[in-house]
Amino acid sequence: MKICAVLRVVPDLVEEIEIEETEIVPFAYIANERDEHAVEEALILKEKAGGSVDVLGVVDEDTASDVDEPLAMAYAKGADNLIKAILSRKTFRRYEVAKGLAEFLKDKGYDVIFTGIQAIDAFAGTLGGMLARCMNLPYIGGVVEVDVQNGTLVVKKELGGGLLGEYRVSTPAILGVVSAERPLKFVPFAKLKKAMKEANIDEVDIEVPEIEGIDVLRYYEPPKPEITLLEGDPEELAEKLVEVLKEVSVL
Amino acid sequence: MDVGEMLETYFERLSEVSESERYKQCLQCGTCGGSCPYGIASPFTPRRMILALRAKLIDEILESGAQWLCTACYTCSYRCPSQIPLTDAIIPALRELSLLEGNPPEELAAALMNTARYGNPFRESPRKRDSWTKEVEFEVPLMSKKKEADVLFIPECFGAYHRRCREITKAFAEVMYLLGVDFAILGNEERCIGDLTRLCGEFGLFEDLMEKNIKTFEKYSFNRIVTHDAHAFNALKREYPKMGFEKEVLHHTQFLFENLDKLKDMFNELDYTVTYHDSCYVGRRNGIFEEPREVIKAIPGLRFVEMKRIRENALCCGGGGGGVWLDSFIRNFLKERPAEDRVREAASVGADVLVTACILDVPMFEDALKVTGLEGQLVVKDISELVLEAIR
Ligand code: SF4
Ligand code: SF4
Questions:
Q1: Structural domain boundaries, residue B47
Q2: Is A240 within a domain?
Q3: What band does A213 get if pLDDT is binned at 50, 70 and 90?
Q4: The pLDDT of residue A123
Q5: Domains identified in chain A, total number
Q6: Do B349 and B328 belong together in one domain?
Q7: Which residues in chain A have their CB less than 8 angstroms from residue B96's CB?
Q8: Of the residues B29, B45, B76, B83, which should be mutated to test ligand 1's pocket, given the most ligand atoms within 8 Å of the CB?
């Protein structure tokens, strides 16, 4: 089975982030957590069904080196090929990115393409579905487990409320992963450093087409929530709380 | 890895951190397992680990998870008649194999990955490491500004970030300030000293941390390091010299003792009963027993009582050797945490205050107070908090 996993980087929220009118300037980038799960599930599928895993790091020119460590991490865990897709684009429209990536992926012969189902940067979460649309492939999101039975994929998907749905889907297909079926594999420091030295990363430039769509006009910081401390004995407190809840129309 | 590869990797590591042949001198006496706080629950006590290693059953140890049932309290190593380095080598080298297999307990894995990325296990920004200094009313000098000082004070990760432990850091810094000590901190240049990474078998990360820290130390001029973190003290004193770092390192109990004459003139009377917990890496591992007791006994009005298990025989709080991140794992094997047993012991001898000297003790024991219902009856204080209270 020829497997691909998409790995994006997102701003590291542990560090400071500056929000300017038309730009978000993070201090550092980190692998998108759901994509790390997508890579993990891709490697699990390889263990189950055999084949190879290519990891496709998706970055912009200015974040190109930020994906090196996450790619090396995937290599240390058993990924076969590492590709760095450097986007050249003018806008942040995800549909355009999906189109650009689809153009690159379409003749690569992948049986399954994994993406994380979401990203902290809300624009990126829809990539899996859009990619499927552009490539005319089936898409299943909310994936928590993947098996192969008689050449078809059997996929467990979260339906909410604790329910799981089981789907059969023929390959090629695109799967959006919520979480891999086992915890992310730990990679010791020395092994990661070794992988960073040894791993061979192929670079490709992805021409992102410009298509009319929604533009970002301005970024805002979310308003700081107002905190009011209620004081008094329990009875008074309960009364005040009821008042407040009525005010905000919860009661 | 197959068993052959595991054994090869294991003994290679063993020979790097200790004499790899020593384990062959095991008498199978069972002193280690009988002394271990987890011995009763562990499928492989140190004695059985060695037996399994001899029989090439290393995979069975790893599958059982016994390598994680250890909080590096050093009791087994201290008592072993053959002086086998159980805590520093036999167990961490087994843990390293788990790390290489990629499946250590999850909380611990997260702590190690955070330490590699951010220089602290809490997933906090390295740029906020000195934020505690903004919560005190005196200036805490930074090495980057001051360039030289008599004392380099290392708050270490818990002391810099952990909500409760920061109080201890602030208290000790204030004691130094009131004593007029010429001290400074590295602030945001400091990163994890790494003793827990070593004891957890993350040797590569430990080496990296040592290299980076030593490089930072070398930028400045100071005479000695003082820290209230018992594990940082242990690593700086015992491991860093192997990498060429040769400065005097003092635990804060030693430092307080050194300044006792001055402190005595400043002490006010306190009126309650205290007992003292010998932390593993202050007492058993590094032989500091008298200094903290002398400091406590010098405070007028305090009544000092001893618990039953003291000095070399003190019970571990369960936080060391990665124990703080192994809690849910260990709970699968053991109902009562050692810390719960310990606070009951402190209460049973009539103490109002349990005085400690390792930064991990305070959160461990305070949690145990909640579980045992002793909250309100017994209070936990680091020795620096006690001293500050007496001189304020
Ligand atoms: S105490 Fe030492 S000699 Fe005795 S069983 Fe344990 S490791 Fe072997
Ligand atoms: S160091 Fe302590 S906890 Fe670890 S095995 Fe030895 S006695 Fe047990």
A1: 3-103
A2: no
A3: confident
A4: 57
A5: 1
A6: yes
A7: 188
A8: B29
